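Thread: flavin-adenine dinucleotide complex, take 2
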Amino acid sequence: QTTIHWFRRDLRIQDNAALYYALKENKKVLPVFIFDTVILEALDDWADKRVVFIHQSLLHLQEQLEEFGTSLLVVHTDPVQFYKSVRPQAVYTNHDYESYALTRDAAVKKILEAKGVHFNTYKDQVIFEKSEVQKDNEEPYTVFTPYSKKWKAKLNAFFLKSYPTEKYFKNFKACKSIALPSLKDIGFKDVDAIFPERVIKTSIIEKYDKQRDFPAIRGTSRLSIHLRFGTVSIRKLAQVAKKKNEVWLNELIWRDFYAMILFHFPHVEARSFRPAYDHIEWRNDPEEFEKWCDGQTGYPIVDAGMRELNATGFMHNRVRMIVASFLTKHLLIDWRWGEAYFAKKLLDYDLASNNGGWQWAAGSGCDAAPYFRVFNPALQTQKFDPKMEYIKKWVPEVGTENYPKPIVDHVFARDRVLSSYRKALNK
Ligand code: FAD
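Output below.
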């Protein structure tokens, strides 16, 4: 009887926890990917590049799998319906911590167990999950620094060891090539897109601490889309980080931290981590929001970031912090508007990290920037893009008459946000 390995955010055959156990414990393992109609129907862009990325990754996976005499079954349906219609020996998959996924997986488990089919799930996406790193009193951490200290203290070779799936490739189910649906078949358009390479550039990692804050330099790994869809293994990256640069390791720990926060505090998906911040009276001016989205605020570093995002689906981390602070603090627009815009545009969009980043910038999150910290775009530019190289790349008309006047005066905006925040927080 066939056993299913259900690929989701783990689109690779090497060092994959659930795939390893599926192959080790069974004889006829068939890899399956489901284009989840519940997720796809919520996307409002039929040319979404993330779907193209998944599709390309599946083609690559299938090619690799066919070398081992098996294939990849790709279906386009609601996973709950799919599991109602099959009766495998067992199903193996890796954990996903988002609330939709948790609900879906609970439903799938129930359906399968009612048929006597085991649903086996594993940690794969992060180094430490759920309550693996917690305070001595067994509560979850809400501040990053002590969390990261405990994380590092707990780390040992065991947690970084890769899962040697290749030992058991003989246990894939032998089958003929299965046709993969085209993007058109699933209601999407094939668009030209260039994705960051799946290469760990050690020369970048080695200099990461010195170069990471300068958006004009290629100073960060650009691996975020690969981490998002599991086309690289986090254990592999953490091994490199540990050897080469602790500052980069810290960034990988932030990723674990936000996944842990989302798991323990699922309310952050809709509300502020700190309830008082839900009393802020946002201005939510739709025209100003549109100017921010389009990179037309008259603040060059903000506009450069938004135009980079619109054109490429990527934005440098330093600039993400600046544009998020600008939206929430200078324009007093609800962080959830910005979060939703990023969710639509970022190729590396990840609910936990995006929500964490936005709540950090708005001040409403765990371990967030204090409310009185309002980034000054001009000072940020002087520090991090002193020659305006990044700005000129994305805003070539800067300094000319064609460039808009600032949407709001910095000092005025700063006073306005401080008094609004004070009022909401009773400070
Ligand atoms: P590197 O600097 O090379 O870091 C390596 C990896 O560490 C990244 O790929 C990422 O997986 C992880 N990482 C780095 N910084 C962070 C961080 N602050 N929080 C969590 N993980 C981190 N990252 C996402 O992956 N998806 C998002 O949707 C996302 N939204 C963000 C929204 C805002 C408002 C902010 C301020 C940050 C957001 N980040 C998000 C974090 C960060 O900006 C990106 O991970 C990073 O820019 C990706 O580039 P890189 O792969 O070159 O990262």
